[in-house]
Amino acid sequence: MTESREEFDVVTERGKPAVILAKPERVGGPEAWVERQCDRIRSVVAGHGAVVVRGLELVELPRIDLASRLLSTSVMVEREGFAPREQRRRHLYSGTKWPSDQVMCMHHELSYLRTAPSLLMFSCLTAPGEGGATAVADAAAVLGDLPGDLVRRVAGEGWWLDRNYHEEIGVPWEAAFGTSDRAAVEKYCRDNDIEFAWTDGGLRTSQLRPGVVTHPGTGERCWFNQLAFLNEHTMEPDVRDYLLAAFGPAGLPFTTRFGDGEPLDRATVDLVNKVYGERTSREPWQRGDLLLVDNIRMAHSREPYRGERDVVAAFADPFEPAALR
């Protein structure tokens, strides 16, 4: 279905996110078009949860940076990243370094932060030859499909994220917290309700976060967490076995628990990922595409790919999940 609006059309198709067909040549180029249309674009995001803006040909970092600022109220600097990224500009980041032949499971970006982004913006500089879509899944629908006892448990108790910042694997604590000052890290942890302890290997943290939130715009209850994605059972078995042998169960780079402290079993992790899969929609990347995602309403993933892939991300419009329970 195609919905006509001034200076752009919105195309919707089953199994795909909405696509805006931009017409920037009418108003003097991509930046002028985004500035003129930003309120309408944000209304499409509010209506659909995610939208691909196609036709802007945004492939230069300064122009992407400007577009992300025009489309948001406040851009954020990443903290507590779980895997390495390259910072391309102050508020633009490369995709997470993750094996190209492995899926990055559905998750809500940085949902373990006390203050998380509510808006994500992804820009495609180089489209992969095959695969590599940034797929999305409706979090309210996922919540409705999950077993009631699991939803009630996570809504009532929240979820724990346990992390070990090792020098050998993952993100060093200096990079994750943006400082090499231990006192500054300790203050950050106290300010953000994070339990912490310095270890021989680096830093260990634990944080309890809400797992179900109410969307401030729609009033819908949404499954909002990384309970399954950051659990040890999502790791490749050989990788998990190696890490357990090297660091022990308490030394894994990351894992998750229920809010009462009970570990997750593989069946629960597999069930959550299965439901996400049933609610997934995707649109293959084209060079110059811009994808906006409501990070509360929609989870997202990165699918396996072949060839070169270069997608940069910006995080924006912070909100406090705990305040939405």
From TrEMBL:
Which keywords does this Swiss-Prot/TrEMBL entry list?
Answer: Antibiotic biosynthesis, Dioxygenase, Iron, Oxidoreductase
What GO MF annotations does this protein's record show?
A: dioxygenase activity
**Cofactor(s), names only, from the UniProt record:** Fe(2+)
The GO biological-process annotations, alphabetized, read as:
antibiotic biosynthetic process
Query: Record's InterPro entries?
Result: AlphaKG_dependent_hydroxylases, TauD-like_sf, TauD/TfdA-like
Which Pfam families does this UniProt record tie to the protein?
Answer: TauD
What residues does the TauD/TfdA-like domain cover? 33-311
- Protein name per UniProt: Alpha-ketoglutarate-dependent taurine dioxygenase
Originating species: Amycolatopsis jiangsuensis
Lineage runs: Bacteria, Bacillati, Actinomycetota, Actinomycetes, Pseudonocardiales
